[in-house]
């Protein structure tokens, strides 16, 4: 059911923002809508999700109306702090958003549109389990204003899916992609590599299968073992082997090679797109540090340097809103040094790069050695931007440590 919430300051019951907070009307505004429901809990998952027997007082069929209560609250909070901005991106994540009827997702999106407005050409993404996407579902989502479907493929190899506790039929990935394409939606597929027992050949099979789908975008994430998950317990008991760092590095290099050969360009360490227009604009907003409101239990928000997070359980979330209170559990306002550190951490991960001018002190002195070590692109650095090389992407954490020393 997700990791523990951060420790911060208490959030006011009405959700009001600090009196001295100033919203920049020119800063993009995004909306994240968390749908915390899953049919089963995957062994590796640390997200704030719940199966039907874990809901304890929350009802899935009432969720859309509950979340729209937070949307209404947000309008008042943001109106008091400055001009309302239309959303340039909307992202339904989870969990499995497509466990809800398409009509519920459509009502949630309509609530966002009616409350904030959407910019012209706004990107609206829905994450989907392949087993839940039919032609009818895809058409209904497209009619509601969804522009992009992110399909949780994870692997094309049944044994690997079983090790992850993924229950979808691999054949349904192609069906889901075809349905999305038929409805005029952009398509992304999500992959995970480094699963215990997965070989380099298994990973090649998954990559080649994903490429054959002719999607617009591919995300490929290294498996991370999170404390408290089933997979972490299995590794601790010696039932399965921990992911091998060297093998994961080989898998990343293979992904970059095959995806680049198929016409994809990397734009973030774990993400490749066919064109600039098919990059995930919503996720880029996170990496660039713009503003967003996260709706739903456990969702996090960021507006004008203030961060807050909601209570985790759907029942507690619903109870707060039913009482006319904000669901925010806590908040923080990082100081300038913390914001600068976060900017280096996030912006160094994207191909647009991090301005050298934003690196200070010993970090600025480290740039030359990072170029010499083949971790950042020398030509880009001379032009004023830090851009990771392929080797630098593999060692991104080490680069960040050097830049923030």
From TrEMBL:
SUPFAM superfamilies the UniProt entry points to: Radical SAM enzymes
CDD domains associated with the record: Radical_SAM (cd01335)
Coiled-coil boundaries: none
Record keyword Cell wall biogenesis/degradation present: no
Keywords: 4Fe-4S, Chaperone, Cytoplasm, Heme, Iron, Iron-sulfur, Metal-binding, S-adenosyl-L-methionine
Signal peptide annotation: none
InterPro entries the UniProt entry points to: Aldolase_TIM, Coproporphyrinogen-III_oxidase, Elp3/MiaA/NifB-like_rSAM, HemW-like, rSAM, rSAM_sf
Function statement: Probably acts as a heme chaperone, transferring heme to an unknown acceptor. Binds one molecule of heme per monomer, possibly covalently. Binds 1 [4Fe-4S] cluster. The cluster is coordinated with 3 cysteines and an exchangeable S-adenosyl-L-methionine.
Protein name (Swiss-Prot/TrEMBL): Heme chaperone HemW
Native species: Microbacterium candidum
Top-level taxonomy: Bacteria, Bacillati, Actinomycetota, Actinomycetes, Micrococcales
